[in-house]
Every structure is written in C-alpha cells, then in structure tokens.
C-alpha cells in the first residue's frame, strides 16, 4: 500500500543549526503538507504546497522555515536556525484532492530534538 | 479557539467492553476525518465522513456524523488491547479546505 515516507526518524541538533527534514509523498498525490506535534499537544498545521508553491501557511511557519520540492519525488522542510521550541514531531502528509472529501495521509514523522 | 472538542480526553476500559468517544464543534463542518495515532508515530487515517447522519463501519469501529454536521462519534464494540491508542478527529480548514485542524484526541486504553 502506498505510504508517505520520512527521513530521518530522529534528528538531534544544536540550537542555531540548520536542519532539513525529508519526505517522499505518495506518488500520485498533488498536495503536500507539513504538520508538527509538540509533545502532549495537538497536531498543528505548518504549510501546504501545491504546483511548486506554498498555497497556505500558518503563523508558526515564519521566515526560519522553508519548503522545497527539489525533484519529482522529494519534499523537504528546512529550519534555518533551530530554537529549543522547535523540538517536536514533524509530520509530512499528502493528499490527492482538497475540499470536503480530502483524505490526507501522514508519514511516520521525524522527531526533532534541539539541544 | 477550540474548533474541535474531543471527550473524554482519557478512557480506560477492560477488554471486551464497548466504548464511545465524541468530537464536537459549535460550527458546521463539510467533513470529518478520524485518525488513530500510536506513541511516536504518525496519525493513521481510519475514515472520512461527509454526509450528515452518515454511519460508517470499520470492523468493530462505528463512526457516526451528526445530522447537523457539528459532531461525530466513534463507537468501539468488544474492545481489544490492539484498539489502544489516541483517536484524533480532524476537519478541513483554510483556503480551499486545504489543511486539517485537529482536536486534542481521545486517549483510549484497553486493559487485557
């Protein structure tokens, strides 16, 4: 069964360092997303991406964050200068459609720990 | 603003018992998704409900969408330890219903 895959599964980084989280969405999907979940809190939307550009972003997604689809299969989230509060699980997701019948599938996540 | 309220937040039951958890909102939603999440893993999509009053079954799980499309319930019959997990409801939001807004979840623990 097709699935969203994310690498790495765990990443530990020092505060101020740049990190790149990688995702391979489901191959026939057109919409890609990043969400995050701080320990014990809700899953929160960060950004959506369609047709090689950002379609929507949340207030969390500030200038320290960027996304890219460098080739036909990968989708990346870059955090330029990590802060302690960026520690969270980061989930990549993809869907074929938007609208009421959207079905969004999530990857297993990358656990980012900023020390 | 809490768009989706899930209750109860935590529920512990014995294997073989039935349980129902709820997802409520003060506003109408176009659809609702239920996910299950295990510790350290991503949410796994269980079902999407779209039509008011709709009932969907997935083995021992029964999902219902309220007639007014403001609430949903998940009922588990004869719960098994494998049903343990965090059940999340989510609704489309934003431009083109392009993103999901999640509730805090119903943590279910089934004791063998």
Describe the structure in your own words.
The complex is a heterodimer of chains A (115) and B (112). With 115 residues, chain A is mainly β. Chain A has no helices and 11 strands. In chain A, strand 7 (65-68) and strand 8 (75-79) form a beta hairpin. The mean pLDDT of chain A is 93. Chain B is mainly beta. Helices cover 0% and strands 54% of the residues of chain B. The mean pLDDT of chain B is 93. The chains are: A mainly beta (115), B mainly beta (112).
- What structural class do the secondary elements of chain B suggest? mainly beta
Q: Roughly how many Å apart are the termini of chain A?
A: 36 Å
User: What multimeric state do the chains show?
Assistant: heterodimer
Summing up helix and strand content along with how strands pair, one would put the structural category of chain A as: mainly beta
Main beta-sheet strand count, sense and barrel state of chain B = 6 strands, mixed
Count of distinct strands of chain B: 11
Average predicted confidence as pLDDT of chain B: 93
Q: What gross morphology of chain B would you assign?
A: globular
Largest sheet of chain A: 7 strands, mixed
The helix/strand order of chain A is EEEEEEEEEEE
Radius of gyration of chain B: 13 Å
Report the portion of residues of chain B in β strands: over 45%
Q: Give the % helix of chain B.
A: under 10%
């Amino acid at each position: 069964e097709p699935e969203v895959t994310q690498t790495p599964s765990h990443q530990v980084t020092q505060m101020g360092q740049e990190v790149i989280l990688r995702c391979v969405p489901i191959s026939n999907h057109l919409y890609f997303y990043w969400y995050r979940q701080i320990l014990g809190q809700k899953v929160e939307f960060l950004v959506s991406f369609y047709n090689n550009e950002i379609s929507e972003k949340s207030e969390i997604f500030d200038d320290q964050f960027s996304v890219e689809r460098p080739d036909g299969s990968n989708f990346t989230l870059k955090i330029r200068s990590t802060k302690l509060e960026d520690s969270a699980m980061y989930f990549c997701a993809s869907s074929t459609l938007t609208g009421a019948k959207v079905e969004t599938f999530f990857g297993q996540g990358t656990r980012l720990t900023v020390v | 603003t809490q768009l989706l309220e899930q209750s109860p937040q935590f529920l512990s039951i014995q294997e073989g018992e039935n349980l129902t958890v709820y997802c409520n909102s003060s506003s109408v939603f176009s659809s609702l998704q239920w996910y299950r999440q295990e510790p350290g893993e991503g949410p796994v999509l269980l079902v999407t409900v779209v039509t008011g009053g709709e009932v969907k079954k997935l083995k021992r799980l029964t999902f219902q969408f309220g007639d007014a499309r403001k609430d949903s319930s998940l009922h588990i019959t004869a719960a098994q330890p494998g049903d343990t997990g965090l059940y999340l409801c989510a609704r489309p939001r934003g431009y083109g219903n392009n993103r999901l807004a999640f509730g805090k979840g119903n943590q279910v623990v089934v004791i063998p």
